[in-house]
Design a protein that fits this description.
Oligomer: single chain
Order of helices and strands: HHHHHHHH
Shape: globular
Distance between the termini: 34 Å
Largest sheet: none
Number of helices: 8
CATH architecture: Up-down Bundle
CATH topology: YP_001051499.1 fold like
C-alpha cells in the first residue's frame, strides 16, 4: 500500500525505536483529537466515547513506556460506529473527519504498545489523508503541508513545543471542519 507519509519519516520511525514511535503517534493523535471529541461531544448514545478518546490521547503522551492495555483499548475502539460503517458508507462531513480521527487512534494505540513502525506509519497516513481531503475542500487551508511539517518535527529529537503545536493544529483543523459544516 502506498502511503502519504514521507519516506524519510517512515525510515526514521523504523530506525528510531519505541520512544520515537510513541512520540510520533502521540502528536498525530493529539492533532486529530478535536475532530473526534469536538464532533462527537453530546451525540446521542456516545457520552463515553469522547472521554475514552481523550483519555487515550492523554495516555499516549507517556512516551517513556508502552501502553500496557493497548490491545484492550483497540478492542474497545473497534466498537465505535466510525469503524463499523453501514452499507451506505460514510458520506457526511462530520462523520468523515471523525472516522479519520478514530482511524488515527486505532493505529496509534498498537504502535505505542508494541513499537510497530508499520502501525505508526498507518497512523500518520490517516492524519495526512484527512488533511489532504480538507485542503481540497477549504480554499487556501495548507493543512496537509502543516501535518507533514509536524510529523517531521515529532521525529527531530526535540519534543519541546510539539504538544503546543499539536494542540494548536488540532484546533485549526476543527475550525476548518466546522466551517465546512456551516455551508
Amino acid at each position: 500500500m502506498e502511503t502519504l507519509v514521507e519516506e524519510s519519516v517512515a525510515q526514521a520511525l523504523r530506525d528510531g525505536g519505541g520512544a520515537a514511535i510513541r512520540l510520533y503517534v502521540s502528536a498525530c493523535t493529539e492533532r486529530m483529537a478535536p475532530l473526534f471529541v469536538g464532533l462527537r461531544a453530546g451525540a446521542p448514545g456516545r457520552k463515553a466515547d469522547p472521554d475514552f478518546y481523550a483519555e487515550s490521547v492523554r495516555d499516549l503522551w507517556y512516551v517513556d513506556r508502552p501502553l500496557a492495555d493497548a490491545a484492550e483499548r483497540v478492542r474497545l475502539l473497534e466498537r465505535f460506529p466510525e469503524l463499523r460503517p453501514d452499507e451506505e458508507g460514510i458520506t457526511d462531513v462530520a462523520d468523515t473527519y471523525a472516522f479519520f480521527a478514530v482511524l488515527c487512534l486505532r493505529y496509534a494505540l498498537p504502535a505505542h504498545g508494541s513499537g510497530s513502525a508499520d502501525d505508526a506509519v498507518s497512523c500518520g497516513h490517516a492524519a495526512l489523508t484527512a488533511m489532504g481531503m480538507l485542503d481540497r475542500n477549504v480554499a487556501g487551508a495548507g493543512l496537509l503541508a502543516e501535518e507533514q511539517r509536524l510529523q517531521c518535527l515529532s521525529l527531530s529529537g526535540d519534543a519541546s513545543g510539539l504538544w503546543d503545536a499539536s494542540v494548536t493544529a488540532g484546533r485549526e483543523r476543527f475550525r476548518a471542519v466546522l466551517g465546512r459544516l456551516a455551508r
